[in-house]
Write a structure and sequence with these properties.
The protein has four helices and five strands; from the N terminus they run E-E-H-E-H-E-H-E-H. By secondary structure, it is of the alpha/beta class. It has a single domain (5-110), classed as Transcription Regulator spoIIAA. A five-stranded mixed β-sheet has the order 1-2-3-4-5, sandwiched between helices. Helix 1 runs parallel beside helix 2. The longest helix has 16 residues, at 57-72. 37% of the residues are buried.
Length: 112
């Protein structure tokens, strides 16, 4: 099992949140806490999903919550580097209608 972790940093006024490992009911609260902290500083958030090995419905809820929070203050959440398995989940549940996936963090940051 891949150890879960989350790290954030800023690129100008854009917050980049890198997620590692499984995002499930056990780890989603950790991601939620980090996104709440980040959203207090920036309403432009890029989620780097390159190292996510699994995304559950709990993880999806956290992403939607972050998106709604950012949008309330005129911001956005964008995804970068989503593995095919994660992209398939997002497509299956219809989240690609509200979230855009970019091939690289750089592309996502520059899309703001």
């Amino acid at each position: 099992m891949t150890q879960f972790s989350v790290q954030s940093n800023a690129n100008g006024d854009v917050a980049i949140v890198a997620v590692f490992g499984r995002v499930d009911s056990e780890t989603a609260p950790n991601l939620d806490a980090e996104l709440i902290k980040v959203a207090n500083e920036s309403n432009k958030i890029v989620l780097d999903l390159k190292d996510v090995t699994f995304l559950s419905s709990a993880g999806l809820r956290v992403i939607v919550k972050a998106l709604q929070t950012a949008q309330k203050s005129g911001g956005e959440v964008k995804l970068a580097c989503a593995p095919e398995s994660v992209e398939t989940i997002l497509r299956t549940v219809g989240m690609l209608e509200m979230l855009k996936i970019y091939p690289a963090v750089y592309d996502a940051v520059n899309s703001f």
